[in-house]
Write a sequence for this structure.
């Protein structure tokens, strides 16, 4: 998975006009219109790669001791695979071989590289340029290996408004309620209701 992400970034970097890079899935939706998202990303002074230290079997428990000394246990991080980064960081990710080779050799089995490589790499090398959070909203409150899936019946004006503003975070040193630009995990069946509400709630451009 990480190799695929690196290839996607490498291909996108070939176009010099590309300055910001966002990884989304087919189950993601935008929460704001294009101009709002574009402005938010282009004006940001930092990257959005989620990183956190999680004790237990699905966090530090996935670390392999043979990753040391390149990566030590206190440096091990976990985070969402859905990232947003600027061109400088994308170049660093694509060109790195030192840390990626350690992951290829030792992150196997129950160790999922797409949940650990970028969070660990960015935390170790570029922490000051990173917010430590993702721009993609997801609900893990029900537990289990997968986040909550949303169907047509789940979509309402109130729900979409909640996703857009029921948070608090920092953006360029200022407090803001716009913490997520995207959300997941939405099924194809939700599309019809999303198309009904999107122009009004999300203020999509016509």
């Amino acid at each position: 998975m990480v190799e695929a992400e690196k290839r996607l970034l490498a291909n996108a970097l070939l176009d010099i006009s590309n300055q910001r890079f966002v990884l989304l899935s087919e189950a993601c939706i935008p929460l704001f219109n294009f101009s709002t998202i574009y402005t938010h990303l282009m004006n940001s002074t930092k990257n959005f790669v989620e990183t956190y230290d999680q004790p237990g079997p699905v966090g530090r428990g996935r670390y392999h001791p043979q990753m040391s000394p390149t990566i030590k246990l206190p440096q091990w991080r976990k985070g969402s695979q859905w990232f947003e980064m600027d061109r400088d960081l994308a170049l660093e990710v694509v060109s790195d071989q030192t840390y990626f080779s350690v992951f290829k050799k030792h992150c196997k089995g129950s160790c999922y590289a797409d949940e650990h490589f970028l969070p660990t790499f960015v935390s170790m090398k570029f922490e000051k340029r990173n917010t430590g959070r993702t721009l993609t909203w997801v609900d893990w409150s029900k537990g289990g290996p997968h986040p909550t899936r949303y169907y047509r019946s789940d979509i309402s004006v109130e729900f979409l408004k909640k996703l857009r503003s029921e948070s608090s975070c920092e953006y360029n040193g200022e407090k803001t309620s716009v913490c997520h630009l995207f959300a997941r995990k939405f099924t194809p069946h939700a599309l019809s209701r999303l198309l009904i509400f999107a122009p009004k709630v999300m203020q999509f451009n016509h």
